[in-house]
Amino acid sequence: MIKYILKRLLQLIPLLLVISFIVFFLIHLAPYDAIDAIVTPNMSAETVELMKQRYGLDQPFLVQYVKWLTEIFKGNMGFSLLNQQSISAELATRIPNTMKLVIPAYITALILAMVLGLLAAANKNKWLDKIIDGLCSIGIATPTFWFAMILIYFLGYKLNLLPIIGMYTIGQDASFGDFFKHFFMPYLVLTVAFFPDLTRYIRTSALSQLNEDYVTVQQAFGATKKEIFMKHISRNVLIPVVTQIGQALPMLVTGAIITESIFGWPGVGPYMMTATKALDYPVIMAIMLLSATLVIVGNLLSDVLYRLVDPRIRQTGGGN
Amino acid sequence: MKKKFLGLSAATVLGLLVLTACGNNDEKDTSKATNDKDTFTYAISGDPTSLNPINVSDRWGLTATNMVYSPLARIEEDGTLKYELADSMETTDGGKSVTVHLKENVKWSDGEKFNADDVVFTYENKVLKENGNADSLWVGDQPIETEKVDDYTVKFNFPEVSAAAANNIATETYIMPEHLYEGQEEIDFSGSELADGNVVGTGPYSLKEYKRGEYMQFEANEHYYGGKPSVKNITLRIISNADTTKVALQKGEVDASMVLPSDIEDLEKNDLATYAYSENRVGYMGLNLNSDKLKDQKVRQAIFFALNKDDMNKAAYLSEEFYNTPNTILPPNNPFATTDVETYAQDVEKAKQLLSEAGVTDLKINLAYGSDNPEQTLQATLIQQQLQAVGINVELAGGDAAAIFTELRNPGSTKYDMFLGGYIMGNDPDLYSALYKSGAGANYFNYASEKADKLFEQGAVELDESKRKEIYAELQATINNDAVVYPIVDNKKILAASKNIQGIEDARLVPIYSFEDLSKISIK
Predict the structure, then answer these.
(1) Threshold 0.90, pTM exceeds
(2) A36 touches chain B (CB under 8 A)
(3) Nearest by CB to A152, which of B39, B247, B441?
(4) B168 touches chain A (CB under 8 A)
(5) Which of B101, B161, B192, B502 is most deeply buried (CB count within 10 A of its CB)?
(6) pLDDT by residue (tens digit) across B13-22?
């Protein structure tokens, strides 16, 4: 097992290098120069030149790339062109804020999906299945920004129950109650955004389990459907769900961009949005690289978890 | 197991109901927040780019800087000077220098006395090109020199006579406290924030706390020379989403914000007052003279005669309260702006006649505009429609504004024939040379006219006000006649504020940083 993980980790290195290069290359293909974000019409050509030198933008492509990559190895993701703040420091304060929002929402969505997915599978093609399927369709078809605005309008404005911006009330000591009031609406939006796909996934996996031999055996022994679902299928469905969790890893960084921007939640979302609008390319590259890395690490994590959860694969895989 | 799950999910799904049940407590808190008489909360759309007074040039950075620091003087819309840290200013040595007498009773927010050393210190750092904001302090290829005459007199020496220099000295240069940097050998002012934070200034407020991406909190500066501010705290709240800002205003989570004309009707229902003011912006349609199709002046004039800017403005800005209509390269409020020019009032027959004189039929041109900008999108479709009426086919080329202007800056670019844009250049007409002088940095029009260049040069060194006006009137007429830019609108900024906020007129709404002096507002 450890050997397998080490092998996979080694494979990661060239992959990450390739990704970093693609990220850097794509940004350079964009039809503008990063310097455009910092110059104003009043600046003389000489000042623009000075600015370019200061930010290293006058160097050739490969030199810039190598410089960028070496800095990243040192843990320095560079500085924002716009306000010269350290990107690593900025992300270090913002990623935890995003996680505070995404993790509870994802866990809720997962629990909800387990329940709804199993219920739907157990009642395949009956009215309950259809209702759950309809719910999922509505959930998928609802744009997060729209649902967020609806919540803001009713809960925040009409009923005046909840504050609509930020994470805490300014000037008040941070308390859990205050946090929760700010947290609830974005959390609800994200939960609704996450659960439909998961529900359908779990329903499909549960249905595929129904055709497995062990179900037939249980049926032959006269087990009720309820018993089969609660004791056996629900456990076996956990295996594919575990792989889903690994793949959800990048969401910890970029899972709530739109929702965060709408609620003024100080996470990665508004940071990424502002940087994109302002062509602040070191920031865009850092976030892109980070989320691409998380996709790969997440996949690795899925595979590892899969082996841990499913003894059959562990046995055969361990022999390799 | 299953029952527990069910209970949990029910709680989540029906969370709304649960919240309604405990809603009473929340309501008290919210109303307490809105009735806070000590704090004025102003919504801004993003973090300031810079908080360093030496190089700040972005909207929100200037908004914050203007609260903490003061300039020597301000230039009002009518071109007159309003003294802040200066007591008086006079041009000396036949226009080669300006002498500034400083107020003697000004204190920094830490209680230290303000004097000429601070002014010299500030200008000596700002004039350094590596700090990024020096261009307005250079005349030709040489820097303006700052000289201390005595403790309360400073003299600025120009390398050559410059009419614009007095303006440039005053505009957006915020004086820094020298005493904080005493004894430091190398001070780097090229960054976006000062090493020890922005605490000490001469403005009405001091920055107390800045949480990036969330808010900036300011508290009143009791040493403020303009009188003690009546509101104790100011919060600049960062909300990037315009819809959220609107609801936050309606429910009183913020007290004021900039809004769009289309929001006003909704907001007035909520007991919010709105204030419209001009930023002296010129929104325009520019012609790219590199384009072969537009080389003929008659064709360009024909295009202008075919257009109707009133229709465009009524459609985009709803009411005349929210815009002025410019006739030339200068915004209508500019003291040098003239109406004694060809204004190209719509004349379809004349447009057709000019086209046939030029021997042009079946003209097909494209128009670039920012597709995420609703006003420009509207203007573009109307332009397409109006030019269709005289037989010109316009292909709409919507795109990212930054990308369009980068393309236009490429030498010899002919990708776009026409483009929509806008500029806020300030009061002195010399500043507009960056747009219309041959080869200038922001000359997207590729306009090159010997006559215009010469008039710009004359205007820059002419000290006699009335002669200067004549020169710039001729310049505006020349550019209008050459038909390179079609000024469409000077659209106003609209501030919406809770009716509890008093004294907004006294605080004065000004371009870029919205409030000239926030110490003048109070909360009822």
Answers:
(1) no
(2) yes
(3) B247
(4) no
(5) B192
(6) 444 433 433 4
Q: Determine what percent of chain B is predicted with pLDDT higher than 90.
A: 61
Predicted confidence at residue B171, as pLDDT, reads 74
- Kindly report the nearest CA distance between residue A266 and chain B, in angstroms: 6
Question: In this complex, which of A42, A45, A264 lies closest to B244 when CB atoms are compared?
Answer: A264
Q: Which of B256, B266, B251 is nearest to B34 (CA)?
A: B251
The ipTM of this complex is 0.82
Question: pLDDT value at position B191?
Answer: 79
Q: Check if B360 contacts A (Cβ < 8 Å).
A: no
- B494 close to B274: Cβ distance less than 8 angstroms: yes
Domain ranges within chain A, ordered by starting residue: 1-74, 91-314
What pLDDT is attached to residue B166? Answer: 74
Q: Yes or no: say if A193 and A259 are a contact pair by the CB < 8 Å rule.
A: yes
Residues of A in contact with B16 (CB under 8 A): 155
3-state secondary structure at position B86: strand
Higher pLDDT, B29 or B99: B99
Closest CA to A287 of A276, A274, A272: A272
Q: What is the mean pLDDT of residues B375-379?
A: 93
Pair B127, B189: CB distance under 8 Å? no
Range name among A38-52, B118-132, B275-289, B423-437 with the lowest pLDDT average: A38-52
Q: What is the pLDDT of residues B343-358, one digit of tens each?
A: 999 999 999 999 999 9
Report the Cα B49 to chain-centroid distance in Å: 14
Residue of B nearest to A49 (CA): B130
pLDDT at A316: 52
Distance CA A136, CA A113 (A): 10
Residues of chain A found within 8 Å of residue B444, distances taken between Cβ atoms: none
- Among candidate residues B291, B241, B247, B81, the one with its CA nearest the CA of residue B171: B81
Tell me, what's the pLDDT at A81?
80
Which residue in chain B is spatially nearest to A114 when comparing CA positions? B5
Closest alpha carbon within chain A to B36: A171
Residue of A nearest to B435 (CA): A41
Nearest CA in chain A to B3: A115
CATH architecture of structural domain A91-314: Orthogonal Bundle (1.10)
> In this structure, what token pair is assigned to residue A164?
């609509």
CA of B407, closest CA in chain A: separation in Å?
A: 8
The pLDDT > 90 percentage for chain A reads 36
The CA distances from residue B66 to B32, B102, B369, in Å, are 29, 19, 32
How confident is the model at residue B302, as a pLDDT?
96
Looking at chain A, which runs of residues are DSSP E strands? none
Single out the residue of A144, A164, A29 nearest to residue B34, CA to CA: A164
Inform me whether the C-beta atom of residue B47 falls under 8 Å from chain A C-beta atoms: yes
Q: How far is A170 from chain B (nearest CA, A)?
A: 8
Q: Is the pLDDT of residue B174 over 60?
A: yes
Average pLDDT over residues B370-383: 92
Which of chain B's residues have a Cβ under 8 Å away from the Cβ of A263? 244
* Identity of the residue in A44, A45, A157 whose CB atom sits nearest the CB atom of B247: A157
Secondary element (H or E) of residue B374:
helix B374-388
Cα B428 to Cα B132, B472, B511: the distances in Å are 21, 10, 14
The predicted model gives B63-76 an average pLDDT of 92
Instruction: Using CB atoms, pick whichever of B47, B243, B403 lies closest to residue A274.
Output: B47
Residue B234's identity, in one-letter code, is: I
Q: What angle do CA B27, B29, B35 make, to 5 degrees?
A: 105
- C-alpha distance from residue B466 to each of B163, B335, B336, B431 (Å): 12, 11, 10, 18
Which residues on neighbouring strands pair with residue A207, listed in sequence order? none
pLDDT tens-digit profile of B54-64?
988 888 999 99
For the segment B400-428, the average pLDDT, to the nearest whole number, is 88
Beta carbons within 10 angstroms of residue A42's beta carbon: 16
Domains, chain B, with CATH or none: 36-255+500-523 (3.40.190.10), 279-492 (3.10.105.10)
